[in-house]
Amino acid sequence: MIKEPDTLMLIGFMGAGKTTVGQEIARQHHSRFIDIDSEIERVAGKTIADIFKERGEKGFRELETQVLNDVQTFDGIVSTGGGVVEREENLEILRSSPATIIYLHGNLESTIGRLILEGQRPLLQEKSTAEFFALWQERDPKYEEVANFTVETVGKTPARIAAEIIALFSANEDELALLQLRSQIDAFDRQIFQTISERFLVVESVAKYKEKFGIPTVQHDRMLKLRSELKSDFSESTDITDEMIDNIMTILMQAAIDKENRQLNR
Ligand SMILES: Nc1ncnc2c1ncn2[C@@H]1O[C@H](COP(=O)(O)OP(=O)(O)OP(=O)(O)O)[C@@H](O)[C@H]1O
Ligand SMILES: O=C(O)C1=C[C@@H](O)[C@@H](O)[C@H](O)C1
Ligand SMILES: [Mg+2]
């Protein structure tokens, strides 16, 4: 068993969802919650942006280490700041921490999208996309190294991620490696269905076009061409067989035809 920890600590890149998921675990599991960034703001009596402005990143990191030390035996969920792995001193604290440490792994694309919407992280304002990417690559192995478990978050809602983490408390030790792989599989499945739902949005526009120009719903030549192109493009893969392409495309195309017919009342 991963055993229900006294302290559960969430780490990961800025915008990975540490604060949001931490609050959600606390809500679902009736635990206490603390956010290191908020605690730094409380201790300093200033916002993080003001701490960066007045004391620089170095001043902020000193406060961060202080608070990180203080929360090591916090009874509940701790959300860290994205830069907690920046200092070697912090890595030492995390390596010998009594807490169970979970890495919320995501992808750069969705993370940057969310951060731009929020627009509050000082490092986001001052770094170029290339620098941001370099920061991601530099931090990723550090999060991996100090974490007891990595959860894949792409395509999952905060509530789903929280439930996945809570389920770990009753998992058998032998199951953990498998659960970590399943976390990735579940994220891919969500991405597949997200892509399919975006495909339907395009189908909707195609139906409008066909209606405008009086084009029939079913285009046999196009359907055959699409399948044969896919088979050729994936011919190197031993997993994606021609039969699999046929099966999946039959489902997708039939659903698209049904949707177009409904839309066009045909
Ligand atoms: N799984 C998710 N799906 C969709 N939106 C999410 C998800 N997780 C977080 N968000 C949104 O992304 C934004 C950033 O999330 P959050 O503040 O929890 O990140 P963080 O990891 O705590 O970042 P930081 O390191 O800067 O503290 C928020 O607006 C939040 O609502
Ligand atoms: O990734 C980072 O370095 C940071 C992330 C935020 O959580 C804050 O701790 C601060 O904006 C720095
Ligand atoms: Mg946060």
Structure characteristics:
266 residues, alpha/beta, Rossmann fold, 2 domains, 5-stranded parallel beta sheet, 11 helices, 65% helix, binds adenosine-5'-triphosphate, binds (3R,4S,5R)-3,4,5-trihydroxycyclohex-1-ENE-1-carboxylic acid, binds magnesium ion
Order of helices and strands: EHEHHEHEHHHEHHHH
| The CATH class of the largest domain | Alpha Beta
Task: Provide the CATH architecture of the largest domain.
Answer: 3-Layer(aba) Sandwich
% residues in beta strands: 5-15%
Low-confidence stretches: none
Shape, please?
elongated
Tell me the total number of β-strands: 5
Measured as a percent range, the helix fraction is 55-70%
CATH level-3 fold name of the largest domain: Rossmann fold
Summarize the helices and strands and which ones pair or pack.
Elements: E1 7-11, H1 18-29, E2 33-35, H2 36-44, H3 48-70, E3 76-79, H4 88-95, E4 100-105, H5 108-118, H6 122-126, H7 129-146, E5 149-152, H8 158-168, H9 176-213, H10 220-233, H11 242-264
Parallel strand pairs: 1-3, 1-4, 2-3, 4-5
The protein binds adenosine-5'-triphosphate, (3R,4S,5R)-3,4,5-trihydroxycyclohex-1-ENE-1-carboxylic acid and magnesium ion.
(3R,4S,5R)-3,4,5-trihydroxycyclohex-1-ENE-1-carboxylic acid binds at residues 14, 37, 48, 81-83, 121-123.
